[in-house]
Amino acid sequence: MSENKEPHVAKFVYDFTEGNKDLKDLLGGKGANLAEMTNLGLPVPPGFTITTEACKVYLGSGEEPAALRDEVSAHLDALEQKMGKKLGQPDNPLLVSVRSGAKFSMPGMMDTVLNIGLSDRSVQGLAQQAGDERFAWDSYRRLIQMFGKTVLGVDGDLFEEAIDKAKEAKKVTVDTDLVAADLKKLVTTFKKIVKKEAGRDFPQDPREQMDLAIKAVFDSWNGDRAKLYRRQERIPHDLGTAVNVCSMVFGNLGPDSGTGVAFTRDPASGHQGVYGDYLQNAQGEDVVAGIRNTVPLAELEQIDKKSYDQLMQIMETLENHYKDLCDIEFTIERGQLWMLQTRVGKRTAGAAFRIATQLVDQGLIDETEALQRVTGAQLAQLMFPRFDEQAKVERVARGIAASPGAAFGKAVFDSYTAVKWSRSGEKVILVRRETNPDDLDGMIAAEGILTSRGGKTSHAAVVARGMGKTCVCGAEELEVDTKRRRMTIPGGHVVEEGDLISIDGSSGKVYLGEVPVVPSPVVEYFEGRMHPGADDADELVEAVHRMMAFADRKRRLRVRANADNAEDALRARRFGAQGIGLCRTEHMFLGDRRELVERLILADTEGEREESLKALLPLQKKDFVELFEAMDGLPVTIRLLDPPLHEFLPDITELSVRVALAESRQEPHENELRLLQAVHRLHEQNPMLGLRGVRLGLVIPGLFTMQVRAIAEAAAERKAAKGDPRAEIMIPLVGTVQELEIVREEADKVIGEVQAATGTELKLAIGTMIELPRAALTAGQIAEAAEFFSFGTNDLTQTVWGFSRDDVEASFFTAYLEKGIFGVSPFETIDKDGVGSLVKAAAEAGRRTRPDLKLGVCGEHGGDPESVHFFHEVGLDYVSCSPFRIPVARLEAGRAATQAAGSDHR
Fold this sequence. Notes:
It catalyses: pyruvate + phosphate + ATP = phosphoenolpyruvate + AMP + diphosphate + H(+). By secondary structure, this protein is of the alpha/beta class. It has four domains: 13-247, ATP-grasp fold, A domain (Dna Ligase, domain 1, 2-Layer Sandwich); 258-347, 2-Layer Sandwich (D-amino Acid Aminotransferase, Chain A, domain 1); 385-519, Phosphohistidine domain (Glucose Oxidase, domain 1), CATH 3.50.30; 555-586 and 630-643 and 695-900, Alpha-Beta Barrel (TIM Barrel), CATH 3.20.20.60. The chain contains 36 helices and 31 strands. The chain has an eight-stranded mixed β-sheet. β27 (726-731), α28 and β28 (765-770) form a beta-alpha-beta unit. The two termini are 34 Å apart.
């Protein structure tokens, strides 16, 4: 890259005295925080930071910025003057560390080199200055080892093997038992390894060491482990890393020296106290590597009370300054405490909620800031039951973690058995190759669902999440044989029906036998079984209760539930739902009503069809009455029948077998034959893009009008009972305004008839699902006939991407995630650039036509934390999600409304 293409920046290098904690984009997290501690007057070894801008120039061109070397030289000169010695000076060497430091913490993912400046000459000067020959040679062998591995690409195992041989020769087991002479020999061995493996000598010029180390840190940004970590944590790949050059302080100078890590609060529980580890006579990597056993930080008070007291004071200063839990690295050099790093510390989900409320009580942060300290993902972790981590378990397979939680029970292989055994008091796990609507009863009865096929948005996964039910999908290692009622696991072991199994929906793991679970008090709180402020209330529940109250006061987005029956609706209401955003009426046509649907499909005459619809009408009405009663005073959006009709008919293979057997036995089989003919007639190559949704209502006379009549009559009945039904009728899969106009005209006519017959005024809003690209692109026209839009982002994602979600997650999504094509599945978090742009455009076009158009979303994205923020930004009125995800959506809606620019609490 030519010089004139370099970014126009004032400079590429900053002294620690020049930066501050708000410059993370430029100085990285480590550099910004070292500067902040320096500004606070804390004991930080002097140094300087090379910016992320320099890294980006290097990574883009393969060459460092032209000005960088001179800037580094100027800062190195200033550092040498401050320290009173020069880098690698033979009689009194200045040594430095070269450390990475990106904006977001990436622990262990990039490179660090300590003790730069040591050479065959300066090691002698270091020994004389320290009065400790062993220390000097130990520092030198560490430099060659780290430099060889990190900068020159030498296999690190070769150095470890050499150390092991040296210990074997001395008949000792730990590094600290090697004396100066042993370490001197080890240095010679290490240099030979470098020469052989790297094809060059270990550099003796200290400036060459530093320059090569800086380049190595830049290069480590694109190392395999760093890229994998960024994909996992969804950190952008274009940020680059800063490089921190810091004067060395030594914790390995004897028993009055040491190194440690400390937390201002317990990162596991959030409780205040003294938390951390300390290791005498050691450098920082010794603590991380676990080569020697550390002691609890509290013991430092007995080892070095002066340093301990100073550290406690500094920890209090940092926590009050950062107003958060701080993670600290420090070194003590012969009784002198030095601060090497601080950052806002990572914490468990429970600790996050406790700490946020504690800091509010201490007056350090307000409610708005507190909401930025917790996440919906953390809340979800707290809601699901967990397996007891102390239990001894045998994992036999792993699938897709489809719906979090922990469940155990007897394996059953069909819905009927699941219901039967459950009613007898048995805990069961429903095991299927894949589920379908027929399995709903069994899924409700089961403790959890396990399938060998499907992904996170398969039928099993979506329904399980809606019920808050544990689910593992796509466990392809399992061979499920539903006819023989058993499954075969890797290694040939067979699990028969009735054998106990356990599944972990948070990890996708499947275990043999029963693994004990620990219940979640947070769910008991949302269910109303645990009350904050009660004597026996969990302190975590109190913290969650307060954060939810904060969120509810701040949020603009309302949160509704996807619920298909009164039981789900009541649970959703307990969880804080403000209505139903999606009631899927197809679930009302299953079970003992299936025969009526079959009769409708098989009807040869108009009279037969009307008779079937007449029989279905009171059943539908009863469902809606119960739903309106459960959600009295809140909106209930009812989607008219959406799926293809073949889903209500028996499986084609099963039917064919039944017909063939009946024919061979010369038994009557007229009904089965008619069903088989109907299945063949309705067969489609891609039924999800065929006769479904609004198309059904247009080609099967009376189907949608029967449903509309049931809704209207149920609403009238509830009003007569002094209820407050607020029904909304949603037409699915509309692609053009003409479809909606025809259905709406018929619906308005039916509603008018019910009003006249009952003498009740009914205000039933009529709208549509936006789930096809054409609907989104013509939203302005569609809004002329629609009073509301509900974005069906599951189908919209399928049709925008051309994905069949039940197939692609298992077939190639893993490869796409590994290659970085996806940061996350577009079925899990909304694709803002593609699907999201259609949502935004449709919302804007719809409101230009109808300013009071109500906008919501009812796809799975309605409960996804990141997607909720997007829906807030584009101005939707509500999100709708499964009952179990309502608290998550409520919390994230509050966070979205209070999102502070530049806040970062990863």
